[in-house]
Amino acid sequence: xxxxxxxxxxxxxxxxxxxxVLGSLLRTGMPGVREWFAANLAVVGxxxxxxxxxxxxxxxxxxVANTLLALAAAGYYAGCARFxxxxxxxxxxxxxxxxxxxxxxxxxxxxxSIPMRVLATTMFSSIVCVAVAVLLLRHRPxxxxxxxxxxxxxxxxxxxxCQAVRGLYFILLYSPSDPLMLNSSWNMVLLIIGAVIMPxxxxxxxMMIHDAMLEVAEDATNHxxxxxxxxxxxxxxxxREQIVRAGKSGRxxxxxxxxxDHFKHINDxxxxxxxxxxxxxxxxxxxxxxxxxxxxxRMGGEEFAVLLPDTDTVGALRIAERLREQAKMQRVxxxxxxxSYSISAGVATWRAGETFDHLSMRADRAxxxxxxxxxxxxxxxxxxxxxxxxxxxx
Length: 394
Prior knowledge:
By secondary structure, this protein is of the alpha+beta class. The chain has helices at residues 4-25, 33-50, 58-83, 90-110, 114-138, 146-171, 185-195, 197-222, 232-249, 263-289, 313-329, 356-372; strands at 253-260, 295-300, 303-309, 331-334, 337-340, 343-349, 378-380.
C-alpha cells in the first residue's frame, strides 16, 4: 500500500537520478543547467526533511522542507529563463518564497491549519508551473524543434492544474487539521502527481538541453570555426538544393569564387594573427553586403564562394565588383598593425542540366583568369570583362 513515506522515497530516488544526469551536463556550460541541478538538490533535501515528520521539529519538517520545495520550483523557473536567454526575475521569485514562508509560519504556529498550508504550497507550485509554461511557449528559440518545448510546457500546465486541485481539495474537506487526512486516497493520487513534478520536468529540461547541444554541433559542422562563414560541405549542399529549385522555377542562379590576393604576403608580413583577422573582416564585410538569401562559404584557405539565387550574370558581376571595391577600401587593424588587401573573383551562372561541380569549375576557371590577368579584378566565366567590371590596381 502506498504511503506518503513511500512516495517521498521514490521521488527522492528519481530526483537523485536527475542530479546524476544533470551533473554530467554541468561541464557543457549550457545556461540553466546549474539552476536545474540546484533545484533537484533542493528537492532531495526537502523530501528527506518531509520524511522526518513526527521525528524532527515541525519547523524543520514543515517550514524548512516546504521552503526548499519552493526554492526548487523557483530554481527550475530560473533555469528555464537562463536557458532561453531571458531574465530569471529573481526579486519576484524571492518575494514569492518569502510570502510562502510567512504563510507556513502563520498556519502552523498562529492558526494551525493543514488545509491552508497545503493550499499555500500548492498555489505557489501552480503559479510557478504556469509561469514556466508561458516562458517556454513565448520564448522558444527560433529553429529549435517545437516538440520538446510544447511537451515541457504541456507537462507544466498539467502539473499546475493538479496542484491547484490538490489545494482546493484540502480546503473543501471542512475537516480539522488532522495528519490522517494526508492518507486519504484522493490526496495520495494528487500527492503522487505533485511528487513527480521536479523529476519529470527535469527530464523535459534534459530533452531541451539535448536539442540545444545538437544545434550547437550542427552549427559547428556547417560553419567555418575561424570566420563563421559556411563550411565548404554545407555550401555545396545548399548549392545543389538551389540548383534543383532553379531547374524547377527557371530562375537564374550565379556563383562567385573569390580569392584574397597575395594572402601569403599578408601572413608573412603580419603573422597568422593578422591573416586570420583579415579573413574574419572580409567575411564580416561580405555578409553585410549580401542579401539574406545569399550564402557565403569558405572553400579553403583564402578562397571563398558566394551563392546568389535569382541572380543573372550581370547582377552577379555587379555584386562581385561592389565587393571588390569594398575590399580594396577596407583597412584591417589589430595588435599586428594595419594592412590592406584586395580580392579577385570569378563569376559563373548556372546552365540548365549543369551540376554544381561543373558550375564551380567554370567560376574557378574565371577566377584563375582574373588572377593571371593581374589580380584585383572580376571576370565572368567566358573570360570577357566589361569596362564596369574590370579594374586593376596600378
